[in-house]
Design goal:
single chain, about 120 residues, alpha+beta, four-stranded antiparallel sheet, three-stranded antiparallel sheet, 2 helices, 7 strands, about 40% strand, elongated
Length: about 120
């Protein structure tokens, strides 16, 4: 492979063009992703693939979810949802922290619980 000093003027221009196209396409993708994201409205709780609750993200709620192998404590407060306690051994769901954007989720695999933030229909 040639070093940058050995590249011709045309090759340098082609390299700059490719980099510029990649940067612009990345920026445009990010803009479209953010603009098309639906506002977060509700929290959907599933256990073993079945919906057990659909809750308003903007209404403070305290709920114990009976999962497949144990329980999870879900708190919805000030537009954020989090699992604060869980009976599972690894506590990944607790360490996930608070979620509030459409598409974000908390998963507790041992209890087969998934908490998802969804936008308006």
């Amino acid at each position: 492979m040639k070093s940058l000093k050995e590249l011709t003027v045309i090759q340098k221009r082609e390299l700059i063009l490719v980099v510029a196209i990649l940067v612009i396409s990345g920026l445009l993708s990010g803009i479209f992703y953010v603009r098309n994201r639906k506002p977060a409205e509700e929290v959907v709780v599933t256990v073993d693939g079945k919906i057990v609750a659909t809750l308003d993200l903007h209404k403070n709620t305290d709920m114990v979810i009976d999962g497949y192998g144990g329980t999870d404590h879900l708190i919805i407060k000030d537009g954020y949802a989090s699992i604060t306690e869980a009976s599972c051994p690894d506590k990944v769901c607790v360490r996930t922290g608070k979620i509030h954007r459409s598409g974000e989720l908390i998963v507790c695999l041992p209890n087969r619980v998934v908490v998802t933030i969804e936008g308006e229909d």
